[in-house]
Amino acid sequence: MSNQRKLDREITRRRMLTASAGIVAGTVAAGHVPALLADEQAGDVPDLDKHPWIDAHSHIWSRDVAKYPLANGNTVDNLSPPSFTDEELLALAHASGVGRVVLIHHHPYHGWDNSYLVDTAARSPRTFRVVGTVDNREPDPGRRMRAMLAQHVTGFRITPRFNEGKWLDGGMDEMWETAADTGQNMSCLIDPSHFAEVGAMCAKHPDTPVVIDHFGRIGVDGEIRDADVDALCALARHKHVAVKASAYYALGKKQAPYLDLLPMFRRVLDAYGPERVMWATDCPYQLSGENTYDDSIALVRDHMDFLSTGDRQAILRNTAERVYLFV
Ligand SMILES: [Zn+2]
After folding, report:
1. Is it the case that residue 47 has pLDDT exceeding 80?
2. How far does the centroid of ligand 1 lie from the alpha carbon of residue 3, in Å?
3. What is the distance in A from the centroid of ligand 1 to the CA of 156?
4. 59 CA → ligand 1 middle, Å
5. What is the dihedral of CA 71, 75, 81, 83, to 10 degrees?
6. Residue 93 phi, psi dihedral angles, 5° rounding
7. Most Cβ neighbours (<10 Å): which of 32, 47, 74, 263?
8. How many A from CA of 171 to the centre of ligand 1?
9. How far apart are the CA of 32 and the centre of ligand 1, in A?
10. How many CB atoms lie within 10 A of CB 52?
11. Contact 211/243 with Cβ under 8 angstroms?
């Protein structure tokens, strides 16, 4: 690791601790230890020898809708699968050697409310990081992002889905500027038709960490087009962009062992390097139909003979560990 990167990481860590100290001074009664300070002493201890890998993308939800109310008119009967808690997720993950997970905000069920993911990460601060959400159309999105850093929120989900054509307006420049300062990232749920817009934002905010989810959803209609892969690879010229190699159940033939995705996977690795590519499942959706949790990690673990041991470790752990500020 370069000295500059070590320094950057130390600065980010100090910022997270300073943010916690702010909570102490502001809102936490004497005697209560805020989550990030408690990290140093107690809480969960993931067994990184037994479960070395990181799943960079899963959703979770709870049936406790009194505590975590559902948005968008959903009721507990709409939850599908009916329950997918952190315990249920980790049972699957551990069986495949995965000890840490990035929890991704789920707008359809939770709207703009981050509380279930934030509470889960507070209980298990070494196991989880959170990709949260803030509404860029509301005032002060940067201030809200900084406050969430102490709650283990190290990325923000942004997407054109609610606001096509205007999704990068409002406070979005402030969000990207804030992320460049805090080390949080912009995790983009986008299609190939949005690559050019994201590229323009990367050019405008060259120090902002950016993650493209699920290969930019190339192949979601069953066809992996070279022009789309070219455009995704072209974004690699922005040096803080990384790609999630994920959601295999939804791309191309959508069938394990997903070998039809390997030519695209290889091209992305050639463009970005394994240190900017991270594996993820997109559970519980990865569990749809015949697809299993282990089918997802098996593509990288068992079917990519061209990877060195170091490349595989980067894709299955080190990239997500760095980009989502686990250390
Ligand atoms: Zn997802």
Report:
1. yes
2. 34
3. 13
4. 6
5. 90
6. -60, -50
7. 74
8. 24
9. 34
10. 15
11. yes
Please name the amino acid found at residue 287.
Answer: L
Whether the upstream peptide bond of residue 81 has omega within 30° of 0, thus cis, is yes
Is residue 238 within 8 A of residue 201, CB to CB? The reply is no
The strand pairing partners of 243, in sequence order, are 212, 277
Cα 203–chain centre separation: 22
State the average pLDDT over residues 11-37.
41
Return the structure tokens found at 53.
């890998």
CA distance 301 to 97: 11
Give this prediction's pTM.
0.89
Domain residue spans of the chain = 43-323
**Fold classified for 43-323:** TIM Barrel (3.20.20)
List, for residues 160-174, the tens digit of each pLDDT value.
Answer: 998 888 999 999 999
Amino acid at 270: D
Distance 6 CA to ligand 1 centre (A): 30
Token pair, residue 61, equals: 């939800």
Cα–Cα distance between 177 and 107 in angstroms, integer?
Answer: 23
